[in-house]
Amino acid sequence: MTTSTATTNTAAQAAPEPDVRKGLYGVVADYTAVSKVMPETNSLTYRGYAVQDLVEHCSFEEVFYLLWNGELPTGDQLAEFNRKGRSYRSLDPGLISLIHSLPTECHPMDVMRTAVSYMGTKDPEHFTPDTEHITHVGHNLLAQLPMVLAMDIRRRQGKDIVAPDPEKSVAENLLSMVFGNGPESPASNPEDVRDFEKSLILYAEHSFNASTFTGRVITSTRSDVYSAITGAIGALKGPLHGGANEFVMHTMLAIDDPGMASDWVNNALDNKDLIMGFGHRVYKKGDSRVPSMEKSFRALAERHDGAKWVAMYENMRDAMDSRTGIKPNLDFPAGPAYHLLGFPVDFFTPLFVIARVAGWTAHIVEQYEDNSLIRPLSAYNGPEQREVVPMDQR
Ligand code: COA
């Protein structure tokens, strides 16, 4: 051993162990005034308002306005917000042909991600981000992503598109563009529209979750808002995050018989499998959003002959609880709720995108207005420094 290596080793032994938090577990990365998650009381507020109150008393648009502006709108402010947002309900012809050119086998989240990325290429202002531009893009996404989603569903089903209606709310318009306006469409049932809208409110925001944090990281480099949202969609797609709502329904459909739910859960746990729709990085005693979503799911089940899915939900939840104590998260009731509304399972996470655009854009503004490049450190655990051996001697 050479003297210099011995010195290096001694220094390495003396260095304190770095405080590595894998998955940034428990790390507080910044301040936010957008929402507050309180795991000790299973509660969540958006700009100081309890999410359960917002679900009961507000429209999705009011909540969207609140997340952006910090205050609930007056009647005039909401009318202006809606007038502006609804005026953007038309798609660029290039985007329409792009959507139709994408493989019908690809996941619909890939279509959403590609659509936002494409929108960025058509916006000459995209590299001059400021609050006004970010909210302008947010309005566009709120108006156009439901159209992208509806167009994608209907092209896969071989159906013609249904034109957007400037008189309709985001929730009603989306249901009508996906399912049409016939008497059987959920768009024609105000209770279905309202339960769907509640799910959008519950999905709209949740502090520094993985996709929002991704959007903030991208924004922190002074990149543009389309890049931030495109990256956020990529993060949301994963089954440990937004993709879980699809996996919940795939699981329920695979089990099929509620009487088999308990055995299925126990078998999965014996195999050390993760069961989607359960657990949360922050909430350990229950997800604040589940009671409201469960109420809407049960109401949808009553109207749409969904007793089987309620039994499945209860049996899986009880089996998981008695074996592990791990509670359901929002995706667990949202999955079967979207199934009862008639959405194809692959489109559940794109629905989450439409809602979460509200939170993402609020956080992008916050990051932009008080920015510091997000760049953590790593603790190196690879080989010690060594010399390159030339190719002919290896
Ligand atoms: N199914 C089975 N076991 C689970 C579980 C689940 N859904 N969620 C957590 N656990 C287990 C973990 O494997 C871990 O077991 P171990 O101690 O034997 O290793 C233990 O519970 C503690 O997990 P924890 O550290 O609290 O989880 P996390 O914070 O790293 O992960 C999630 C949180 C959300 C990633 C995790 O719960 C999960 O993968 N859930 C399923 C996906 C999902 O529903 N995502 C949507 C979240 S809103």
UniProtKB/TrEMBL annotation:
The active site is at 280, 331. It catalyses: oxaloacetate + acetyl-CoA + H2O = citrate + CoA + H(+). Keywords: Acyltransferase, Transferase, Tricarboxylic acid cycle. GO terms for cellular component: cytosol. Pathway: Carbohydrate metabolism; tricarboxylic acid cycle. Signal peptide: none annotated. CDD domains: DsCS_like. GO terms for molecular function: citrate synthase activity. One of its GO terms (biological process) is carbohydrate metabolic process. Belongs to the citrate synthase family. NCBIfam families: cit_synth_II, PRK14033.1. This is Citrate synthase. It comes from Corynebacterium marinum DSM 44953.
